Amino acid sequence: MFRRRTALSVSATAALLAATPILAACGSGAHPGAAAVVDGKRISVAQLQAKVKDVREAQGRAPQGEQLIMNTGRLSLATLNGMIFDEVLARSAKDAGVTVTRNDIQKWRTAAESRAGGAERLKAMWLQQGIAPDEIDAMVRNQLLLDGLAKHLGADRGRPDGQRQLAQALARTSRSMGIDVNPRFGKWDDRQVILGETKEPWITTGGAKQRV
Question: Is the pLDDT of residue 86 over 50?
Answer without folding.
Answer: yes
